[in-house]
Amino acid sequence: MKELSTTDFDSVISQSELPMVVDFWAPWCGPCKVMAPILESIAPDNQQLFTVGKVNVDDHGDLAMRFNVLSIPTFIVFKGGSEIGRFAGAAPAAVFVEKVKGILRG
Amino acid sequence: MSYQVGIIGAGPSGYTAAIYASRANLNTVLFTGLEPGGQLMLTSDVENWPGEEHGILGPELMAKLRTQAGRFGAEIKELSVTAVDLISHPKKLTLSNGTVAECESVIIATGASAKWLDVHGEAKLRGRGVSACATCDGFFFKGKNVAVVGGGDSAMEEANFLTKFASSVTVIHRSAEFKASKIMLTRAQNNPKISFKMNAKVVEVLGEDRVTGLKIENLIDQTSADLPFDGLFVAIGHFPNSAIFANQLTVDRKGYITVLTGTTQTNIPGVFAAGDVVDHLYRQAVTAAGTGCIAALEAERWISHGA
Ligand SMILES: Cc1cc2nc3c(=O)[nH]c(=O)nc-3n(C[C@H](O)[C@H](O)[C@H](O)COP(=O)(O)OP(=O)(O)OC[C@H]3O[C@@H](n4cnc5c(N)ncnc54)[C@H](O)[C@@H]3O)c2cc1C
Q1: From the alpha carbon of B32, which atom of ligand 1 is closest?
Q2: Which of B35, B134, B160, B294 is deepest in the core (most CB within 10 A)?
Q3: Percent of chain B's residues with pLDDT above 90
Q4: CATH T-level topology, domain A2-105
């Protein structure tokens, strides 16, 4: 899972061939902790569909601000460099994947 | 799929019931629903769980309870129960994947969920300035002006917590009287960053990509005004997750499941209810766990004696 920062965010997002799900999280956030292993576990099965990146909002508050992230965890799906959908809050693995697929289907 | 004990809900109550039932060698399944871990997943420090002398993070406590339940063989399934037939033998639970689980006894531990205002703009801006969890989201309102709606202890607690980040917190409350306890109210009233707007009601949340303000109605002269705010925290209480049972079980006026005093027995033999879906008075992790324990012991007795 790729850790994104203020410096590389735009280049990574625009160069990613697959859609990228970016997890905005922080170390003090309980629900975010719950999601970390879930994201690890779903990544291999979905590697044809999307990749996953992470933004630590403590370290990169400017990114949170730029995307109006006001609740964590927030998951934003980027395709071709721009946002195509988002959802907030922890979710079990199956529900998470369904939500992402729903956004990808448009 | 058939089981001796079917537990609905994965909060402190459901997990504790699973620990007791599976440790008693009953063939036990637990359905987590959409929020495995329950309400404590939304909080950081739990300081009143006995035995954790330094406090424990809510999600960490719930992960431990889950492991402990699994250790004695309870099957934990990340499915929701969408319909129930509690009267038949065995009892039937229809699951979100379309299958049906048959259970000799059922323990309902579906807890409670935060109430929303149900006003225009609220749903659209959830996660974009509208929140029901100050501990989760307060951080994003550093130096901002936020509103808290509600007049109970949880509203006062959220307001006090938010002053760590926000430059001003306005408590908006429908009446001129508070349900909050004296100590919580005084603490909020003495906080220089908190102000109060009484006899007032939020009628609309304003903003496109994020909250920019609230339309607030003055309930005394019926005028309304748009006021600028960056965030809205809703703390107007909880409702019990009992809708799918209400056509078969006795519930009170507010939807809480009714049990025989001092027990977890509902009006249907072999069906037990525990935790916040029953209890609107104490609403604590440890009381939910306590009644979850009782429910498992009562289910065990019911299975072996049929009474
Ligand atoms: C922000 C916050 C902070 C808190 N802090 C504390 C504290 O410090 N100390 C304390 O003692 N208490 C605290 N509480 C209260 C405590 O969290 C609750 O009393 C406790 O969680 C109730 O447990 P429960 O097992 O009854 O239900 P819940 O924790 O509400 O769990 C309900 C479970 O039922 C599941 N469910 C619901 N419907 C279905 C369905 N149809 N099918 C399957 N599953 C379903 C849900 O997914 C969830 O897993 C806090 C609550 C909140 C919101």
Answers
A1: 44
A2: B134
A3: 82
A4: Glutaredoxin (3.40.30)
